[in-house]
Automatic annotation (TrEMBL):
Residue ranges occupied by any P-type ATPase A domain in the UniProt entry: 172-306
Location within or outside the cell: Endomembrane system
Domain P-type ATPase N-terminal, residue spans: 72-131
The protein, known as: ATPase phospholipid transporting 9B
Organism: Hucho hucho
InterPro entries registered for this protein in UniProt: ATPase_P-typ_TM_dom_sf, ATPase_P-typ_transduc_dom_A_sf, ATPase_P-type_domA, P-type_ATPase_N, P_typ_ATPase
Keyword Transport: yes
Keyword set, alphabetical order: Membrane, Transmembrane, Transmembrane helix, Transport
Length: 339
């Protein structure tokens, strides 16, 4: 049976057809308004997040088994124990500084105002009254950021080049902080910074414990008591650490500096020796040995250490000087134009 269409139906279809372009125009207007009223921030943020995920694949953190003095037995490749606090490199410095400055609404607003002066209908005063302060302040900002980057580089280089004693089968050898690996046995002297996250194995103190200062880790000047693993502390000599077959099972890297879960196991004994490990057996990177000499096995290095995991990326401050100069110039130009 054929379908019958009434004239009224044709009229409604035709009316809808004529109103379709108007609806599209309204959608465009709403889209433009959303973009100007803050949608650009969401759009830029989404693009940056997508680009970051594409360029930087985050490795999943896992628990690990670390054999004493045998980094070659590690099942996975762990990050290099190098400190890097730089925010930029040679190629990202200029775009990075510009992004950090203009990601704030007020800064971006002043940039848009300056750009609008190229439109004759919106022009107020001379272009240099807008672009000269903007260029001056951005130049000052870049110089300041460049100086800060050089200082960060120098500090990192000094920290990474510090020498430590590493215990090997042939005895002690000197190694740079940046060359320390998971599984290494590192000796740290009194008043020396701990270069990586370690499990406390032995100390020169007869009590089997030592104090460390945590001011470089949590910002508070505090001394904490740490206890060595009983099995390794009771060994007759330091070199006996290579005469036993032992490993540490450590949980995956965590943010919490006040907790730790792990186990110490010595397999060559009969029966095997098992010790539960807690926060009292840990020596976190960036803390300072306050008493005696300690030796520990490295379990976390570089960006997996507690100190790095709890350090947020340095952020640029909003340039209030820039805001004051540009606001003052804008008001002066407006008053001049009105007057």
């Amino acid at each position: 049976m054929p379908l019958m269409m009434s004239e009224e139906g044709f009229e409604n279809d035709e009316s809808d057809y004529h109103t379709l372009p108007r609806a599209r125009v309204k959608q465009r207007q709403r889209g433009l308004g959303w973009l100007l009223m803050g949608g650009w921030k969401i759009l830029c943020g989404s693009c940056c997040d997508c680009l970051a995920r594409t360029c930087r694949r985050t490795k999943e953190l896992k628990a690990r088994t670390v054999w004493l003095g045998h980094p070659e037995k590690c099942e996975e490749k762990y990050p290099k124990n190098a400190i890097k606090n730089q925010k930029y490199n040679f190629f990202t410095f200029v775009p990075g500084v510009l992004y950090q400055q203009f990601k704030f609404f007020l800064n971006l607003y002043f940039l848009v105002v300056a750009c609008s002066q190229f439109v004759p209908a919106l022009k107020i005063g001379y272009l240099y009254t807008y672009w000269a302060p903007l260029g001056f302040v951005m130049a000052v900002t870049m110089v300041r950021e460049a100086v800060d980057e050089v200082r960060r580089y120098q500090r990192d280089k000094e920290m990474n080049s510090q020498l430590y004693s590493k215990l090997t089968v042939r005895g002690k050898v000197q190694v740079k902080s940046s060359d320390i690996q998971v599984g290494d046995l590192i000796i740290v002297e009194k008043n020396q910074r701990i270069p990586a996250d370690m499990i406390f194995l032995r100390t020169s103190e007869k009590t089997g414990s030592c104090f460390i200062r945590t001011d470089q880790l949590d910002g508070e000047t505090d001394w904490k008591l740490k206890v060595a693993v009983v099995c390794t502390q009771r060994l007759p000599a330091l070199g006996d650490l290579f005469s036993i077959n032992a490993y540490v099972y450590a949980q995956k890297p965590q943010l919490d500096i006040h907790s730790f879960e792990g186990n110490f196991t010595r397999e060559d004994g009969d029966p095997q020796i098992h010790e539960s490990l807690s926060i009292d057996h840990t020596l976190w990177a960036s803390t300072i040995v306050a008493s005696g000499t300690v030796i520990g096995v490295v379990i976390y290095t570089g960006k997996e250490t507690r100190s790095v995991l709890n350090t947020s990326s340095p952020k640029n401050k909003v340039n209030s000087f820039y805001l004051k100069i540009f606001a003052t110039t804008t008001l002066f130009c407006v008053n001049l134009f009105v007057g």
